[in-house]
Each structure stands twice: as structure tokens, then as C-alpha cells.
Amino acid sequence: MSSTGTTGNYDADALGWFGGPGAFGGRFMPEALIAALDELDVAWQQAMADPAFTGEFERLLHEYAGVPSMVYDATRLSEHAGARILLKREDLNHTGAHKIRNVLGQALLTKRMGKKRVIAETGAGQHGVASATAAAYLGLDCTVYMGEVDTERQALNVARMQLLGAEVIPVKSGSRTLKDAINEALRDWVASVDETAYLFGTAAGPHPFPSLVLSFVRGIGDEARQQCLDQYGALPDAVAACVGGGSNAIGLFAGFVDDPDVAIYGFEAGGDGVETGRHAATIFAGSIGVLHGARTFVLQDEDGQTVESHSISAGLDYPGVGPQHSALSAAGRATYLPVTDTEAMDAMALLARTEGIIPAIESAHAVAGALRVAKERPGQTILVNLSGRGDKDMGTAMEWFHLGEAGEQQ
Amino acid sequence: MSATSNTGIAFEKARAEGRATLVGYLPAGFPDVEGSIAALKVMVESGCDVIEIGLPYSDPVMDGPSIQAAAQQALDAGVRTTDVLRVVEAVAATGTPTLVMTYWNPVEKYGVERFAQDLANAGGAGLITPDLTPDFAPEWIAAADARDLDKVFLVAPSSTDERIAMTTAACRGFVYATGIMGVTGTKQTTAEGVAPLIARTRAMSPTGGTALPVGVGVGVSTGVQAADLAAYADGVIVGTAFVRTLLDHPGDRSAGLAALAALTEELAGGVRA
């Protein structure tokens, strides 16, 4: 992985457009931030061409974060599914999710650029914890913006960030979730850009973030592709990942987009069901607009006002999506479908009881989606990105399944 | 551009009087649609030379807490893009050049051509676009040029000379210089702080004909500041201070309007000092 995030025919052009000029992506940002985005773009491209940087990144991933994560043949789940399910175990990475890859890359880049402070937004808190971790490890100051609603449902992650030395600022504007945390981080950045780097948490936002984030997470797919070949002698028939902003998904998909025989599925948060309007199925049910600096699918009303998203999973509760996913959808290369809260929670329990693995609720959406794909592809092999572990979600699980009182659980 | 910009004419008139232009901002639909029309008319009567009407948006990344709160209040009350155009029509009818300040997505969703046409029909002068830069604005530039609408893009202290040249070449009406690195209503712009940006903007503006006026906004709230800035800039742009004045008088509309008139007069005195 020494390139700057190439995905063959699905790369961004020099202005950050995916799928052709004006289609998806670009850079819809205040002029005050353009110089910083240009500076970041140049520094990132130089870093990715410098073996000293990429070597240090690889070393940190391996020695500190436990990468490459394993690909694991989930035989008991497969029996249940009627197809062979392989799991890419990103939940076993340090901090418990794929997010550590992105933040280590961006934090190393921050050091290289001579900046001393990082800011980040977080939804579920996974990116915030990963950012606080990387900042602690590399000696950077860290401020994390988190929607007030999310600080309540992910209190454990707030405590983690604080223990790691980060300042967590609850965001009280708008819907008080991830989108508002991004707004607030951007407002901080406009005022602090000289000394501060914005560690963007997903493969969305203005150019170069979608391509930059991809370059740091594409190891997921590159590793998994090679692991499938080495361990099983063949590529999977399909790959599946959950999609909020879409960084774990694009990281997985990048390894397979140029393999035309591998089907690609992204599973969005269907919340209470797309028909109820309470969901976060941005590509499936949204329309094309501009949000957080990129043209992409957005949940919006007739006037272009962002509509609040809903999901039991804070990490998928976002009304936008990375522009490369929009382009992959428009090109017909990947299929994006919703998975409801109920389906995801059922999959969480099923994976726990068949494999002894408690997934993050985000990742449970991918498992649930794969179970549906398995019905259409009996006997085939489906690789699922198990992007995070479920420890942080035990509060939600206890409430959902009525757990915690001995003798009374279902 | 063929016809002369009415906004440009307002700047020329002020320049001929040896003073700076006062540009006043308020979101449409705040405190409600009729209330915003009344407030903007007070600002016109009390000395604003150019009016900037904010289109309330759910994700205003360049705005601080006051304008966010005002926009949210408008949205919560159900204000629509068509209501914004109605406010534009009412204010433009006073003869004062009236621009819309809007984040890009609502225009894109409305349809760029349709928005430009309806804005022109309402008598609107053009758009100020805080999250749309000329290099990503070909559709808007074409739609505006076809109707002689103003295109006000922003320059910032962090802008390179090359970007200032590119931006000023694309502007019509004036160029909006952000006085500070930050969002609206959070820090104070100082004349010394913004002077280098103004000087660079003038130096990089296309020459020939009337030079493009430079308006300074973000972080300007008092008559004293307006007076200081008027020595450097062609225009002084005030937003948050007007919004705060109305937020400070939630229950008493006539007191709010009186305070708004007093603030406008203070600022109008400032640009003439």
C-alpha cells in the first residue's frame, strides 16, 4: 500500500471528483479552509510517496495496532446462513475497530506537517477514541467534538477519550449527533487551522479527505484479498460492509473493485424501517446534494435542509455518505441496501451465540446484510468486514434484549 | 457582465460621498417571515446601503451560535426557500440592493437555473456563497451571468494570491473579505488585522474599469469598528450584531426594532466617520 489510494477506475480526479467532473465529491468549503485543504493534499501526496513515511505507518499498524487483522472462517454462522461467511476481524485491532488505521495515518501526517493539535468529530465514539489514542501515542493535543445525544448513549467512550487525555466537547446544536459534531469541528478548524489538523473520521468530506482516508484504510481490503487467496485459494463471491460515512466499507471495497466477479454490498442503517422515515439509508433512500463539503447522497427535504437520521447505531447515524460510495452506486459497481435496527440486533445476538463474537452494532448491520445475501447466494463465499467490537454497545444491548438480570433474559 | 451591478452602484455612491458602504445581514424568517421583512426595512430606513438576506440552513458551518440560533428558529417555524424569495421581493422593493447569503445545498436542491430566475424575478441582486468557491461554481456563474446577477465570493486571510486573483476575477458586485479566521460572531476584526488582506485583494483584483469593491465582514459589530475598517475597506458587513439585537428582545418586537434602528444608525455613523 504505497500508492495514494488508487482504486483503479474509481479514483478521484485532481479536483476530488468521483465518477466524472461534477458527479460526486469535490470541495464545497469556505475559502478560509481551502489553503489548509491544499496544504494537506500536498503533504499527504508527498508522504505517501516517501518510503520513510509509509514504512513508519506500516510499522505502527503492525506493532501498535495489531494489523493485519485475521480473516476467519465463521463455520457455525455459515451453517446457519447457508453460505460460507468469512469475517475480516477488524474488531481485534487496538481500540477495537478499523478506525485506528485512519487515525494513525492522519496523526503521523500531522506530525510530519509540524502541527501540534488535532481535532476530531465522533459519532459512536470509536473515531474519537482512536483519535485520542493516536494523539496520546504521538504526543499531540486532542479535542473531540461529539453530539450531546451521542455522549449520552456512548458514555463509556467519552470516559475512554478523557482517560487518554483528550478534551471531549458535547455539541448542543442542531440534531446533536454526528453531523453537528462535524459542523462544530469545522468551525473550530476555521479558527485554528494554522496549528491544528482535522482528523476526519470517515471517507467523506471535502477533497482530499475521501481519498486520503481511503489510502489509510484500504489495507482492510488489500489484506483480505490476499488472505482469501492464501488461506482459501480463491476470491470471495461477494464482500459486505456496513456504511455510515463509509470508511470501513470503502477500505474493504477498494481491495475488490477491480475484481469484476466479486459482488460488493454496502449495508446502510435502516433504523425503524425506511418506510417510517426514521433511518440513515442515505444512498438507498436519499437524493443527491452537498453536505460537509462534498456532493453525494444526502438525507434532505425538498428545500435541501438536512433531515435527521435515525439508527440504533451511533456510528451509522449520519445523513450523508462518502462520495466514492455514491459513485460506486451510480456506476452499478456496488449495491447499497438498508438493514433495520431489529435485523442488526438479531445478527448481533446470532454472531455472539454461534461464534462467541460480540460485534459492534454497526458491524452487526453488515452481518445481517450478509445473511440476506446468503439466501440469494447459497453455498457461495461472502466476506464480511467485522469493523468493530461490541463492548461499547453493551448498554444498548442490555436495554434491547433485557439483559443483566440473572434468570430473566430471553 | 453587461449591465452595471446595482450593488456596485451603491458602493460607487458611497465612495463618491467619501465613505464606506454599510451592508446589513439578517436571516429570512427570523423572528418570523413578516418580522424579518419589518426588521430588514428598518435596517434600510436607518442606513444600510446594501442588504444581505440569509437563507436559513440546517448545517451552517461558517456561522457562530447567534446566527445558528436564528436560522434554527426560522427553520423550526417552517420557513421555506420560497419564503426567503418573498422576503427578498419585499426588501428589494425599497430600491436597496438585496443579496441572498446562502450555503450551497439549498440552491442546488431548488435548481440552480430556477433559483437564479426566481431570484431575478424577485428583484434580488445576487448571491453571497460562503461554502461555494468559483472553482466549484461553473453552474452558478453561468446562471448568474445570464441574468446579470451579482456573484459575491469570499477571500480569507489564508487565501493565496493566486486564489484571490481567481476569486476576484469571478466576483460581480463586490468581494467579501473575511476579517478573521473564524466563524461569525466569535472574534473581533481589527483594521490592522484585515489591512493586509484588503491590500492583497486590491492588488490581485482585475484592473480596468471600476475596481471591484472590497467589503469586510465576520467579526464586525460596532460603530467604532466600522469607523476603523471604513478607512481601509469599501464596505463594512455586519450580521451577528443585528441578529443578537433581535435575540435580546424576544418578547417585545417594537423594542427590538427600535434597538435595531439604533444599531444601524450607530454603524451608519461609523462608516461615515
UniProtKB/TrEMBL annotation, chain A:
A GO CC term assigned to this protein in UniProt: cytoplasm
Cofactors, names only: pyridoxal 5'-phosphate
Positions carrying N6-(pyridoxal phosphate)lysine: K99
Repressor in keyword set: no
Pathway(s) served: Amino-acid biosynthesis; L-tryptophan biosynthesis; L-tryptophan from chorismate: step 5/5
Keywords: Amino-acid biosynthesis, Aromatic amino acid biosynthesis, Lyase, Pyridoxal phosphate, Tryptophan biosynthesis
Catalytic activity: (1S,2R)-1-C-(indol-3-yl)glycerol 3-phosphate + L-serine = D-glyceraldehyde 3-phosphate + L-tryptophan + H2O
Gene Ontology molecular function terms on file: tryptophan synthase activity
Domain (Tryptophan synthase beta chain-like PALP): residue spans on this chain: 71-388
InterPro entries associated with the record: Trp_synth_beta, Trp_synth_beta/beta-like, TrpB-like_PALP, TrpB-like_PALP_sf
Taxonomy, superkingdom: Bacteria
Residues that span the membrane, as ranges: none
Assigned EC number: 4.2.1.20
HAMAP family given in the database record: Trp_synth_beta
Family membership: Belongs to the TrpB family.
Function description: The beta subunit is responsible for the synthesis of L-tryptophan from indole and L-serine.
The protein's assembly and partners: Tetramer of two alpha and two beta chains.
Protein's name in the database: Tryptophan synthase beta chain
Name of the coding gene: trpB
From TrEMBL, chain B:
Active site positions, chain numbering: E52, D63
Gene Ontology MF: a single term: tryptophan synthase activity
Keywords: Amino-acid biosynthesis, Aromatic amino acid biosynthesis, Lyase, Tryptophan biosynthesis
One term under GO cellular component: cytosol
UniProt entry tagged with the keyword 4Fe-4S: no
InterPro entries in the record: Aldolase_TIM, RibuloseP-bd_barrel, Trp_synthase_alpha_AS, Trp_synthase_suA
UniProt-listed Enzyme Commission number(s): 4.2.1.20
Alphabetized PROSITE patterns for the sequence: TRP_SYNTHASE_ALPHA
Pathway per the UniProt entry: Amino-acid biosynthesis; L-tryptophan biosynthesis; L-tryptophan from chorismate: step 5/5
Reaction(s) catalysed by this chain's protein: (1S,2R)-1-C-(indol-3-yl)glycerol 3-phosphate + L-serine = D-glyceraldehyde 3-phosphate + L-tryptophan + H2O
Pfam families: Trp_syntA
Enzyme class: lyase
Keyword Lyase: yes
Family: Belongs to the TrpA family.
Subunit structure: Tetramer of two alpha and two beta chains.
Biological role: The alpha subunit is responsible for the aldol cleavage of indoleglycerol phosphate to indole and glyceraldehyde 3-phosphate.
Protein name: Tryptophan synthase alpha chain
